[in-house]
Each structure stands twice: as structure tokens, then as C-alpha cells.
Specification:
Elements: E1 5-12, H1 16-28, E2 33-37, H2 41-52, E3 62-65, E4 74-79, H3 95-112, E5 117-120, H4 125-136, E6 143-145, H5 149-163, E7 170-171, E8 174-175, E9 183-184, E10 190-191, E11 194-195, H6 196-202, H7 208-220, H8 222-230, H9 235-249, E12 254-256, E13 259-262, E14 271-274, E15 277-280, E16 283-287, H10 294-314
Parallel strand pairs: 1-2, 1-4, 2-3, 4-5, 5-6
Antiparallel strand pairs: 7-10, 8-9, 10-11, 12-15, 13-14, 15-16
Helix pairs in contact: 1-9, 3-4, 5-7
């Protein structure tokens, strides 16, 4: 058995998201070795060279283009490969194209490495996380998706802007699908321990329903807006990938809304979606049962049902 190198990471897919994630991880200092894999070997080599040329300004690291056999000792394998979301296209529209891609990628990963943590970033991330778990046979705690980590960051950012406070002091989650049926968990949102509605009133805002609806819509439509303006989103998700890797590599036990498979929890079963979870060196180490209102619980179950229907009708494993 090959010994796992805790300082080695692999990225499969060197498009916008994969290359931006590689750049973010190079700057993080979390890893000492990074292998890039892409169907277009020249693309992987070009990205590896470009990022490597900045290493004199960062920490020592080996960055190179490789093959699947080069991931045998990687502690984490990050999968960003897949078709891009186009203007006017939903994440769920990508299902068939990207599940077909995963049917070729995941078996290759498993062939060379059965002990890594598998982080799924490609969209639709919830469907692909469930697909990767089933195709890989990995323990479910070691296969999870970036989920709504970015959506939750967008929510915190917009709330911070709205309230005129540091977004790092805002504690709020988007849960459910990373997509159109996502749910802002307003009932548990707070600013440094102060319930959100109370903090809003402290800042002179009293029209809660209208404002929260507006902010929730802005979060949900953020990706569509960015894609319409610059044709792709990649910086925000790259920083989300870095944050998730930090939690794993440093065994932080951080609570992040990653996408993982649920079994009869929160009224959800046999599908992957996002709820807050403890993330550490073993991947998803525990799920966190945050308080939800009746309406939020119903919306979460509806989101799960949407994902389950898409999987059952579009994915053939």
C-alpha cells in the first residue's frame, strides 16, 4: 500500500475553476506538492508552469502536470472537471454531460488511490457528489462537495454590506441544493451571537421580509449575473476550495456547509446536499443539526426531492 502524503493534493480539471483553485492553493502554503491533471495535457502543463513561476514570491512547492498514476499518494483529490455552465443554463442542466465525464474520471482515481479525500467542485455539485460516492465506493465521509460554502459566503458578504459590518462577524448558512432551490437559513442567522432581526433593528432596518427576500435572490442569482458579465465564475469558488482544504489539512473541525450524503436526517435521505458539517482530517466528521423553522424544513425537503428526481431521471450508474 502506498503511504499517503498529507502535503500532496491533486486537481483533476484545469479549466477556469481548476486553475484558479491551483493558484489559491499555491498561495495558501497548505501543500508542498500539487499535481494537475487534464484531458488536454498541454493545458495542465501550461497552468503548472505559469503558477510555478510565482513560487519565488510564495513558499517552496512542487507543481506539475501529471497522469492519474501520479495521484497514488495524494491526501486530497479535487475534481473540477466538467462542462461549464453557459449563460441561461442552470446547474442542473449540466447533469448528463458531467455525470458521463465522471464515469470516466472517478474509476481512474480509484484505480490509483483508495485512501484520499475526494472533494467534488464541478456542477451540479450535489448530483456529482452523490455520483462520485457511488462510483468510487469510498466511505461517505471522504467524498463530499463544495456545496453551499460559496453561497453562504455570498450571503455573509451581502449581509455585511447591508448592515455595514465586517462580513466575518456574520454567521449565516445557505442550505440544500447549490442551485435554484437553495434555502437561506434565516432562523439561525446571527451577527456575533445577536439574532439577525434584532441586529437589523439596531442598524435601523425594520422591513425584514422584503430585505431578506431581496438578499436571498441576489445570492441565488449571483452566479448567473457573473456568468452573464464575464462568462464564468472561478475566483470565489477557488477561495472556497482553499478554505475547505484548510479545514481538512489542519484538522480544524470547522463547521462548513459542504455537500454530503444524508440518511434520514432533516427529513432528507439518499441524496447529497448541503447542511453545516464538522470538517477535519477525516473529511465530514459530523453533521450539525442547526435549528430550522417549519418553512425552512419544508423547503429543505423540497430541495432534496428536486435533486432526487433529477438523479433518478437523468443519471444511469
Amino acid at each position: 500500500m502506498v503511504e499517503i502524503n498529507s502535503r500532496k493534493v491533486a486537481i483533476v480539471g484545469c479549466g477556469f475553476v481548476g486553475s484558479a483553485s491551483a493558484f489559491a492553493l499555491m498561495q495558501s502554503g497548505l501543500f508542498s506538492e500539487l499535481v494537475l491533471i487534464d484531458a488536454d495535457r498541454n493545458k495542465a502543463e501550461g497552468e503548472a508552469l505559469d503558477i510555478s513561476h510565482g513560487l519565488p514570491f510564495a513558499k517552496p512547492m512542487q507543481i506539475y502536470a501529471g497522469e492519474y498514476r501520479d495521484i497514488s499518494d495524494a491526501a486530497m483529490v479535487i475534481v473540477t472537471a466538467g462542462a461549464n455552465q453557459k449563460p441561461g443554463e442552470t446547474r442542473l442542466d449540466l447533469v448528463k454531460k458531467n455525470t458521463d465525464i465522471f464515469k470516466s474520471i472517478i474509476p481512474e482515481i480509484v484505480k490509483y488511490n483508495k485512501n484520499a479525500i475526494l472533494l467534488i467542485v464541478a456542477n451540479p455539485v450535489d448530483i456529482l457528489t452523490y455520483t462520485a460516492a457511488k462510483l468510487s465506493g469510498y466511505p461517505e465521509n471522504r467524498v463530499f462537495g463544495s456545496g453551499t460554502v460559496l453561497d453562504s459566503a455570498r450571503l455573509k458578504y451581502l449581509l455585511g454590506e447591508h448592515l455595514g459590518v465586517d462580513s466575518r462577524s456574520v454567521h449565516a448558512f445557505i442550505i440544500g441544493e447549490h442551485g435554484d432551490s437553495e434555502i437561506p437559513a434565516w432562523s439561525s442567522a446571527n451577527v456575533s451571537g445577536i439574532p439577525l432581526h434584532r441586529f437589523c433593528e439596531m442598524r435601523g432596518y425594520f422591513n425584514h421580509d422584503a430585505e431578506t427576500r431581496k438578499i436571498a435572490e441576489s445570492v441565488k442569482n449571483s452566479a448567473y449575473e457573473i456568468i452573464s458579465k464575464k462568462h464564468a465564475t472561478y475566483y470565489g469558488i477557488a477561495m472556497s476550495v482553499r478554505r475547505i482544504c484548510e479545514a481538512v489539512v489542519r484538522d480544524e473541525k470547522s463547521i462548513l456547509p459542504v455537500s454530503c450524503i444524508h440518511h434520514d436526517r432533516f427529513g432528507v435521505s439518499e441524496i447529497a446536499l448541503s447542511m453545516p458539517a464538522v470538517v477535519g482530517k477525516n473529511g465530514v466528521e459530523a453533521q450539525v443539526p442547526i435549528e430550522l423553522s417549519e418553512e425552512e424544513s419544508q423547503c429543505l425537503m423540497a430541495s432534496a426531492a428536486t435533486l432526487r428526481e433529477v438523479f433518478d431521471t437523468s443519471v444511469k450508474l
